[in-house]
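Work Package 3 (structural annotation) set out to generate three-dimensional models for the target panel prioritized at the project kickoff. During this period the team completed the workflow that converts sequence records into discrete structure tokens, so that structures can be stored uniformly alongside our sequence database. As a representative example, we reproduce one entry of 380 residues exactly as it appears in the project archive.
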Amino acid sequence: MTLELPIYLDYQATTPLDQRVLDAMMPYLTRDFGNPHSTEHSFGWKADAAVEIARKQVADLVGAQKSEIIFTSGATESNNMAIKGVAFAHHPSKNHIVTIKSEHECVLACMRSLEKSGFKVTYLDIDQNGLIDLEQLSAAITDRTSLVSVMAVNNEIGIIQDLKAIGEICLKKSVVFHTDAAQGAGKIPLDVDRMNIDVMSISGHKMYGPKGIGALYVRKDTAIIPLFDGGGQEQGLRSGTLSPALCAGLGKACEIALLEMEKDDIHIAALSTRFLDKINIGLNHVKLNGGIEDRYRGNLNLTFEDVKSDLLVADLKDIAVSTGSACSSASAKSSYVLKELGLSEKDISSSIRIGFGRMTTKEEIDEAVNHIIKVVQNLI
């Protein structure tokens, strides 16, 4: 069988759109084009109904109530809404936030922005496996702390934090717990009540949905203020006209994920094992970054000793992998996440991220591994 090239192995940057998601979106891009906020006629009613069905589908994925889901443009907006909205809602009586050094760049940017406004932020370390110390987290929370923000799955190394344990600490300390679940929603089981999560950020295009749509879960009675003013849509928290097509796409992606998460996980775990076994047979001195246990298996960050990652990625050509986060690709700085793991600058510059997903095949894995082995051997 001849494989179609290029082979896509950059699922953390974005995922392919599931055909079933596209099918769910199409009616609202064509005949059912109404504004969901137009309440005077059937065009608006149909659009509004689609949005509300999607809202329920998103809520079901994470164990929330439909009324607790706010649609946004994506995880960056959701993270800004969550962090700044909660922080300013509790200010000035509480002016302290706790997060971790390996958070997504948009979360860290929010923290730096709040620091300029007088807030104090504690940045927790991660260990060599990528996990935070729960005792350090508990000790960092004071009576001035309003918010703890810890991501569910790291976008660069795939490490899964213990959200349930973090949630229990936040509940006991009476602080709001926010998690950036852009890389986790639809891939790992998430339950906002079981995990005591108060606010959660979700992205459509990380779970086989469309780009330009995301969601923010906000637990009922959580104090949060809007970032901008407008027509008062989305319970006044996120004004602006919603796209029924994008909402329907996100909703369908969540519905599929809820039904097929276990099947996807088995498929992706098998691909991950296959890739690691073959790459370690073909090459010496390949190191997996981050722990092997607490990991989303569809994300492998590997160091190829004595090989420059930018040259490796360039020479791979028809194999789509990356040297780090696509969301901060405008920066030429080396990965701060790998630095926090304790990697040297030399090893950081020799590391690439490889991502698998629902559409990846065993044949693609075999072809990619063979190609990577040849390129690495030529570069050594």
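The chain is about 40% helix and 15% strand.
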